[in-house]
């Protein structure tokens, strides 16, 4: 029988990290002076500028009456006598105000209601595997992917460890549910499936108090924030604050694929309104019902958010920008790269994963990057981000100036080929790609004129790689490389079946969202998934474990190299240019190690001295969702 009186040992949320790990909630030497068999409910203190004690949260923060507990702030002071002035009360003068606090045992009903600690029917026995098996059986019975998604979200809110165990053990089956394509549909229908907030919404109404809003989040040791403003959700456009599904999904992968502990992850949606008329007129829309704030109003809100993040979580919190529209994404990245640890997944993570796929593909098609010609459909974040990293790598390999390397790369946007005669009217991130050439309107004409060896779709528009386009690629390439990166599946530039059929089985194909294997003339082709999910979890782990303070392009190159090195001959024979996701945690550890090594080499790492074996160290840092025994 399940025991209802288990108390919880006071430890960090993951409960697994050693004191030397960057993932540990606090240093062992600074354990608070509360009895070790108790957890502290909702207390945490800081001092304001006048020395008053500020309580970061109070019991009313505890969700749904559950003993959702907060570790004592590791910055708590230690009095000379060794006693910890955990809440600053001893140091406060008589005139100063302090918030009263108390401790409580998480047990019984409240323990079952706490998703961090709940074990369902497994309190008395180790039954995690059986629980996973049973849940998979239930989830497989749902015919509709969105039902599976909702079942998974429900599980995440009920029993966090089981959610991660299930996701890790069934990663290839469950990734399309918690991530693209199903997460796209979930975002589109978020208003009607929404039950409880899974992340932090920060709207224009919070202007002036974002720091306080962040401090209301129950976890204090945040290491990764994924933030969106919902304006370009996958290839689905402006979904306003329904885009929250994306940061939630990305962070689930940070934990499942990259081993960053769940309590260190914070999903954020900045709500500045939406220009999506359907949402504005939808009675179930959960966000601000106004058109998007722009210009100074937008910039000020983002700036307050970025400043509050640093103030609340320190210098080394990684902020991943996700699914911002390109008119904000490039500027935000450029502006905050100088002062914050920031990473744009759509620009940088995508670039790294595509470069990895290309480096691997060259082992099949031959030649170096510089021997190839690249054509993109789509010249936004993903397109120009990938193009720039290819040019950088090409330039490093050949010593040619990056400006020369760029000349081997062409991009088409909604107005046609990007050429010098269009330069004046181009957005700044397109200008480096405005090469000398006659204007060309259509992709097919561009393909026939430029004769690329590699065709990459980053347009967000489905079925734009037509039969004629793929056939043209196959007419002058023995093995055309065709990547349809747009998400979700409905926006993919072509399907796997189309790519293989129209190229008579010669295309080397990968897509942003997964496609099932394809039979063509008796041979089975397994399309790979060219998705930044291969990169950002391991990349983030590497950044965090080395204490890196900035992201550098060379770290993206290192991640790409690490991923490309994981593709085996057996994978190539199936048509894959990426390793299967089933090994993703090992892959993430390798990526993390390479990224961390580069951070040390560049002098950007602050965790010193560097661990001797970075792969082993990465593995040792990774969160595992095994149940713990409670007293
Ligand atoms: N697989 C992966 O890991 C990733 C996939 N993606 C996917 O890539 C897609 C694009 O994302 P992102 O780059 O951020 O979006 P952006 O909005 O920044 O860029 C889209 C680009 O596509 C162009 N475009 C739009 N319609 C057409 C068309 N009919 N013909 C030619 N070009 C067109 C736009 O042209 P114009 O500038 O003229 O408007 C723009 O240059 C999305 O679907 C996204 O899901 C993104 C990141 C990662
Ligand atoms: C995968 C991803 O980040 C995107 O489609 O936006
Ligand atoms: Mg994205």
Describe what you observe in this structure.
- With 631 residues, the chain is an alpha/beta fold.
- Among the domains are: 127-178, Up-down Bundle (Hemocyanin, N-terminal domain), CATH 1.20.1370; 189-338, Malic enzyme, N-terminal domain (Rossmann fold, 3-Layer(aba) Sandwich); 348-533, Rossmann fold, CATH 3.40.50.720.
- Helices cover 38% and strands 11% of the residues.
- The chain is built from 23 helices and 20 strands.
- Strands 14-13-12-15-16-17-20 form a 7-stranded mixed sheet, with helices on both faces. A 5-stranded parallel sheet has the order 7-9-8-10-11, with helices on both faces.
- Strand 2 and strand 3 form a beta hairpin.
- Helix 22 (584-601) packs across helix 23.
- It is globular.
- The protein starts with 38 loop residues before the first strand and ends in a 10-residue tail after the last helix.
- The relative contact order is 0.10.
- Residues 1-87 have low confidence and may be disordered.
- Bound molecules: NADPH dihydro-nicotinamide-adenine-dinucleotide phosphate (NDP), pyruvic acid (PYR) and magnesium ion.
- Residues 232, 234-235, 326, 346, 350, 353, 377-383, 412-415, 458-461, 464, 485-487, 491, 512, 530-532 line the site of NADPH dihydro-nicotinamide-adenine-dinucleotide phosphate.
- Its cofactor is Mg(2+); Mn(2+).
- InterPro entries: Aminoacid_DH-like_N_sf (IPR046346), Malic_enzyme_CS (IPR015884), Malic_N_dom (IPR012301), Malic_N_dom_sf (IPR037062), Malic_NAD-bd (IPR012302), Malic_OxRdtase (IPR001891), NAD(P)-bd_dom_sf (IPR036291).
